[in-house]
Design goal:
The complex is a heterodimer of chains A (571) and B (318). Chain A is 27% helix and 19% strand. Chain A is built from 17 helices and 22 strands. With 318 residues, chain B is mostly helical. The chains are: A alpha+beta (571), B mainly alpha (318).
Chain lengths: 571, 318
């Protein structure tokens, strides 16, 4: 462990080369996780432009070495059930029941659970068969080196399901309405079987349990912790164990010698260096101090890297989607005003200016979710830019010549897209007479004082990357994304019915049909969360680093758990 | 003099309590809540209520303040709401970084400010004077964080250089690896120091010009003393009195500047820590850092005041 006393600290190596995966969207994904803690991966898409650049001749994957990656956001904690800013790190330290392929939308059982059974036709019952021989890392705490069993899974489910700060309480409450009775709802008939039954079908459940907040932690660790948390420590059975944790500057992970897959992980060490200034992160990557770029890349920066064969670059459609939220108060409670705002947005200009020409129209569900999103032709026809009609609508609504309003937006370090896009929207609305004052609010204040209490007329807020249709739709439901109320004050009983129905519909074709119907209902109403466009996320790493799959590629269902298959040619 | 010093020292705790109380209350008034950072958009009134109880934020404000304040004399600056760790633990590594950065910045500001200022004053109207004045205006008009960004951007593009600490996120210890330590801290110290150097340069010049016009300087010249003796022995000491004042005041600005420069250079000092803590509304951390900065500022000003008496024997404190 690093000596925490600066005065006694020994010299350190100037640089460590190596890697870890898919990190270019970390900034946005991390910010996203911090904001909502959705747990969806930001690189999960149904389409991608694939990797560019030239990979050096590759031999067989080589064990050993280390990689360094940058990170723009401070890691406030790594308790997987409580902290939301270190979820990417949690996945390296803890085992999960299984992994999720967001491209094929399937679970694959390469982790703690060997298989699953869902005997009921309504998919309410889950029976997991736990793998034998998954042991905790040799950390210096209770439970070190011990095998994980169904009792550990149960303890983890109870802790995650009842954690105050964990996102999404909808799923655990379908297992037990009363959180204090949650433990009784789980069965562990033997050390290698874990099961539970939900009150009703909840189709997103399988996706939900693969989220990084559903980490499996040893029961002995949890008992020994008592009231303390895992915020500053990591006691897991994942591929890596914590060597040094200082979430403000550096997180150092080393290989778990007890890991259940022989020979895995390949890397000896992963270093994550926190630098909160985006230009400094970019500079560190260019100079080879970081093996994986931690900066949030823009299109032109990505193009520069792509032109250099020393880097492997990839891009994928981004599920991150800023959208305009309105409060259902005058003038926005008038559908004509909302429509005027909607059709006075020139989405093609947004794609050209903000998305670097690589973007598409977004409906209520982001366009990269191809199976669930409305077709592009339909969206383009519906959102046709028509400033003249917008002016007429405003006149009909009693706002001849437009009106003045204020739009609040969050200020997120290193992410300029929100402010840039808001400025563009402001200029487009000005053309139809809607004068919008932009007010940038520091992120913490924005969430606590603007968004959650609904303290806005208009706000421009980046919704997070979701790869399951249920979550983007929840923003329009009467209960909203928090389950406690819709901050736009929007209520539509017809939509609520469809929203609840889709979550209970097992048949995929039928569910698709319901989701499309729900979206058409929303856009027809110009419901007070106007979606605009979606662009691409970009990543880059040095070509001596090898990831099992690049940003946007289909990982397949044969790879090892997250963090295992990365390797570096450098010693 | 002794009485004056004692009186000033006795005032320090009162000032510190005042500053910490204002900081504490300000964080109660401004929007934003640390609990929101912990639970994100999953926050509901119920969650926020439970988290506030867990962090002790549901207690009366004055009780919270008193609980924090009574720990301070024992070296307990509280625990971070976010990391749950004692603030003093984090400061063990951060305080030396900021202290060294500030010391180096002051040294650079003096080296870059005083000699050119003197040269400019003793050679008024010459090319040297012109260059010094242009440079000082240039340094004054560019914010330090912008110089920092330019240094990193052009350092990377033109010289393939970027701060070595970018690789590890840590600053090498000055005792164990002084060369690497200097390599990491000299560029940000220069960036931080040039703004103050410009102020010192201009003040030194104007103060020296004023002193050089005094009768006793003319007398010194007429006695046949060499210019070096006149400048160093007779003019400089008097000209330095206002400069000393401004140095004391500018150190406060340096502390503020360090917040930005540390962020850009990725230095994990107290300034960077403060930025993160303010952003996450981590009151305990902000409170501790403000306490330290305020104490440092008050002490530096006391030292500057005492330095007057040493610089000018005519000054006496009653």
């Amino acid at each position: 462990m690093e000596d925490t006393n600066y005065w006694r600290r020994n010299n350190r190596r100037i640089s460590r080369r190596s890697l870890l995966g898919g990190a270019a969207t970390l900034g946005l994904g991390g910010a996203a996780a911090m904001i909502v803690g959705c747990g969806g991966s930001s690189n999960d898409t149904n389409s991608s432009t694939g990797p560019t650049g030239t990979r050096a001749p590759v031999g067989s994957p080589k064990a050993g070495g280390s990689v360094t990656q940058g990170r723009p956001l401070t890691v406030l904690g790594i308790d997987p059930h409580q902290d939301l800013t270190g979820l990417d790190i949690d996945q390296l330290i803890y085992p999960y029941l299984y992994s999720w392929n967001p491209v094929q939308n399937v679970a694959y059982f390469n982790n703690l659970a060997e298989s699953i059974e869902q005997p009921d036709p309504d998919l309410t019952q889950f029976i997991f068969h736990i793998r034998k021989g998954v042991k905790n890392a040799p950390f210096n705490f209770a439970g070190a080196g011990e095998e994980m069993t169904s009792e550990d899974v149960k303890a983890s489910f109870v802790r995650r399901g009842t954690s105050i700060s964990a996102p999404d309480k909808r799923f655990p409450r379908l297992i037990s309405k009363d959180p204090t009775m949650l433990a009784a709802a789980f069965q562990t008939p033997d050390p290698y079987t874990f099961s539970f039954k939900m009150a009703t079908t909840f189709v997103p459940a399988l996706r939900e349990m693969a989220n990084p907040t559903w980490a499996m932690v040893s029961k002995k660790v949890l008992e020994a912790l008592g009231n303390r948390s895992l915020t500053q420590v990591g006691y897991g059975a994942g591929p890596y164990m914590v060597d040094q944790f200082n979430g403000n500057q550096r997180i150092s992970l080393k290989k778990n010698p007890n890991y259940f897959i022989p020979g895995q992980p390949l890397l000896d060490e992963i270093d994550i260096v926190v630098i909160t200034e985006n230009s400094s992160l970019l500079s560190a990557f260019k100079q080879g101090q970081h093996d994986i770029c931690g900066a949030v890349l823009k299109k032109d920066e990505f193009d520069d890297f792509s032109a250099n064969s020393d880097y492997i670059c990839s891009s994928a459609p981004s599920l991150f989607y800023p959208c305009v939220h309105m409060k259902m108060v005058p003038p926005f409670d008038d559908i004509r005003v909302r429509e005027a705002l909607d059709i006075s947005i020139d989405r093609d200009e947004v794609i050209a200016v903000i998305d670097g020409g690589d973007g598409k129209y977004n409906g209520p569900i982001q366009w990269p979710q191809l199976e669930w999103a409305l077709p592009q032709d339909e969206l383009k026809a519906f959102y046709k830019y028509d400033p003249e009609k917008a002016k007429q609508l405003l006149t009909q609504a009693g706002y001849d010549g437009g009106f003045k309003t204020k739009m609040k937006l969050p200020k997120i370090t290193g992410v300029s897209q929100i402010a840039d896009e808001a400025a563009l929207l402001k200029s487009q609305w000005a053309k139809v007479g809607i004068q919008v004052d932009l007010e940038e609010v520091e992120l913490g204040t924005f969430i606590g004082s603007v968004l959650l209490p609904g303290n806005f007329q208009m706000t421009f807020f980046p919704n997070l990357p979701y790869d399951e249709p249920d979550r983007p739709l929840s923003f329009y439901s009467s209960l909203g994304v928090t389950g406690a109320g819709n901050w736009n004050n929007y209520t539509n009983p017809d939509f609520d019915l469809l929203y609840n129905k889709q979550a209970q519909t097992v048949d995929k074709t039928e569910r698709q049909s319901i989701i499309l119907e729900a979206q058409r209902l929303i856009i027809k109403e110009h419901a007070p969360q106007l979606t605009i466009t979606g662009g691409n996320a970009y990543s880059a790493h040095w070509n001596y680093v090898h990831l099992p799959y690049e940003l946007g590629q289909d990982p397949g269902t044969k790879i090892n758990p997250y963090g295992c298959d990365e390797w570096t040619e450098k010693a | 003099m002794r009485e004056y010093v004692v009186r000033r020292l006795l005032l320090i705790p009162l000032i510190i309590i005042g500053v910490s109380f204002l900081t504490f209350m300000t964080f109660r008034v401004i929007p934003g809540d640390t609990t929101v950072f912990i639970c994100g958009l999953g926050c509901t009134d119920e969650v926020i209520h439970d988290l506030r109880a867990e962090l002790g934020l549901d207690r009366p404000v004055f009780v919270q303040y008193w609980d924090w304040l009574k720990g301070v004399p024992q070296g307990d600056l509280g625990r971070s709401f976010q990391t749950k760790l004692p603030v003093t633990k984090e400061l063990q590594t951060r305080f030396p970084v900021t202290l060294e950065l500030l010391i180096l910045a002051v040294i650079f500001s003096l080296v870059l400010g005083i000699p050119p200022g003197i040269l400019s004053a003793v050679r008024p109207g010459t090319a040297v004077d012109f260059v010094v004045r242009v440079v000082s205006v240039f340094w004054l008009s560019i914010p330090s964080f912008y110089i920092a960004i330019l240094m990193i951007t052009f350092g990377a593009s033109w010289f393939s250089w970027s701060p070595p600490n970018f690789a590890t996120g840590e600053v090498a210890s000055v005792f164990h690896n002084p060369l690497k330590n200097l390599e990491e801290l000299v560029p940000p110290a220069i960036v931080l120091g040039v703004g103050i150097a410009a102020v010192i340069m201009r003040l030194t010049r104007s103060s020296m010009l004023e002193v050089m016009r005094n009768d006793y300087i003319r007398t010194a010249y007429s006695k046949g003393l060499k210019e070096r003796a006149v400048v160093w022995r007779h003019a400089l000491k008097n000209a330095m009195i206002p400069v000393a004042t401004i140095i004391g005041l500018q150190v406060g600005g340096l502390i503020g500047g360090s917040v930005l420069v540390e962020s850009v250079f990725g230095l994990n000092g107290m300034g960077n820590y403060l930025v993160v803590a303010i952003g996450t509304r981590d009151l305990q951390v902000v409170q501790a850092l403000v306490l330290i900065f305020a104490t440092a500022f008050v002490l530096i000003n006391l030292i500057v005041d005492l330095a007057y008496a040493w610089l000018d024997p005519r000054i006496h404190y009653a």
